[in-house]
Design brief:
By secondary structure, the chain is α/β, with parallel strands linked by helices. It contains 15 helices and 20 strands. The chain binds ligand BES and zinc ion (2 copies).
Length: 455
């Protein structure tokens, strides 16, 4: 369902939603008519986060709703309300900012391409001034979720290329791609090696947009449309969700759409290595040594550490234009999930100012990021006996850090760089986060870019 269906800018006839903090309720600071007070008491309302108390009029129609916000959890409470309220149009009595109001749409997202749903949208009345920015943000997140949820048989490397090409057309951007052997011809050996065993040819996708006089920002997304693990094959439970291994690509496309729609004064370069990590007679193997785009020779320790290989060639390519900043998003390691869990984006950066600004933005828009260190001493965990570097560490520890350190080897020392290791998936539904594909840290990054580059 399109996000615009969840909002309405006509202010009349909305059922009032009254957002109530727990302390305000407990300290009886609400001015209530006797009948309403009784209704709330009878329903056992305690203003816990997301709790609803419905007030009906004499004709049995819904008159207003009290929504519990716990201790300052307004965004979560609004998400719960959007999901649990009866069908209808609602209006908020107070003003809330965009990071709260967007939860109304995020909570109602469903992936319905292959399963019809007859749930009707719950509508929130919002002001005309805030509506466009909520909509562009929700559109970007819905795009991310849709792309991740779409199965690989419908969204392989070629179809992902079609998505980028269409986006480029829509915003008057330029689109370029290197397909199959063109990757070898133009020196993207790792992307070719990882993707060559699939009957769906590997490719590198590129979108460029914006005024060349503006600062250049490069976004790179891991586009592994399916990760079987290659010859070091994944166990079936680990493989089950691997349609989501193009989650990084989905993130940068959502962000790109948001940037172009907002006409941010930057020059944007999006790069997506799009491959399927498959098994076949010509699959790359453990022990193979690949010479990557920057000349570094990499011993393949494990074909399941494929993301860092395809990203390496893309990072080298991105840095050739000396951008102001390179930001990548990737479903790179299981270890990042062990470290920060499923809901938080793990961030690595070699630039203190940018990293701190991103952490501030994450807090401001309630889109969690946690920074992990590029700890130099762990570089040696990637030593290889026969090549410059191995693509995976033999140690079971610090897997997210060693992956990030691997990527850093493809970034010039003076190049500002940020790497996000993300889950891109909700294993179960939570308020505002339906089960399935999820956007992580893109509202934070969008907010950061706006603050840094908006004149
Ligand atoms: N796509 C996976 C990482 C992944 C798994 C992300 C589960 C999110 C959830 C990646 O390509 C991979 O398989 N990484 C290996 C690396 C290892 C072989 C060094 C991992 O994390 O186990
Ligand atoms: Zn893998
Ligand atoms: Zn992968």
């Amino acid at each position: 369902m399109h996000p615009s269906l969840f909002y309405d800018t006509n202010p009349s006839n909305g059922i009032p939603l009254i957002m109530v903090e727990q302390t305000r309720w407990e300290e009886s600071q609400l001015q209530l008519a006797e009948a309403e007070k009784n209704a709330l008491m009878t329903q056992g309302f305690a203003a816990k986060t997301g709790e609803l108390a419905l007030i009906w009029n004499g004709s049995g129609l819904l008159k207003k709703v009290y929504v519990g916000c716990g201790e300052g959890a307004v965004a979560k409470a609004l998400a719960c309300a959007a999901y649990n309220l009866p069908e209808g149009a609602y209006t908020l009595e107070e003003r809330f900012d965009e990071s709260v109001l967007i939860q109304w749409a995020l909570a109602q997202y469903r992936f319905t391409q292959y399963k019809t749903s007859n749930r009707k949208p719950r509508v929130l009345k919002v002001s005309e001034s805030i509506f466009p920015s909520i909509l562009t943000e929700a559109n970007a997140i819905f795009l991310v979720r849709d792309l991740i949820n779409t199965p690989t048989n419908e969204l392989g490397p070629q179809e992902l290329g079609d998505v980028v090409s269409k986006l480029a057309q829509q915003y008057d951007a330029s689109f370029e791609q290197w397909v199959g052997d063109e990757l070898l011809r133009d020196n993207f050996p790792a992307i070719h090696a990882v993707g060559r065993a699939s009957s769906h040819e590997p490719r590198l996708l590129s979108l460029r947009w914006g005024n060349p006089s503006h600062p250049l920002v490069c976004l790179i997304g891991k586009g592994v449309c399916f990760d079987s693990g290659g010859l070091d094959i994944k166990p079936s439970t680990a493989m089950r969700l691997m349609k989501k291994d193009m989650g990084g690509a989905a993130h940068v496309l959502g962000l790109a759409q948001w940037i172009m729609e907002n006409q941010l004064p930057i020059q944007l370069h999006v790069l997506i290595p799009a491959v399927e990590n498959a098994i076949g007679p010509n699959a790359f193997r453990p022990g193979d040594i690949l010479t990557l785009r920057n000349g570094l020779r990499v011993e393949v320790d494990n074909t399941d550490a494929e993301g860092r290989l395809v990203l390496a060639d893309a990072l080298t390519k991105a840095a050739e234009d000396n951008p102001e900043c390179i930001i990548d998003f990737a479903t790179l390691t299981g270890a990042a999930r062990v470290a920060v869990g499923t809901d938080i984006a793990a961030m690595f950066s070699n630039d203190e100012t940018i990293a701190n600004a991103l952490l501030d933005s994450a807090k401001e828009v309630n889109d969690p990021i946690w920074r992990l260190p590029l700890y130099e001493d762990y570089d040696s965990l990637l030593d290889s006996n026969v090549a410059d570097i191995a693509n995976a560490s033999a140690s079971p520890y610090a897997g997210a850090i060693t992956a990030a350190l691997f990527l850093r080897r493809f970034i010039p020392k003076t190049q500002a760089y940020v790497h996000f290791d993300i889950m891109a998936w909700n294993l179960s539904a939570k308020p505002g986060r339906p089960e399935g594909g999820e956007a992580m840290a893109i509202r934070a990054v969008g907010h950061f870019l706006k603050k840094r580059f908006q004149v």
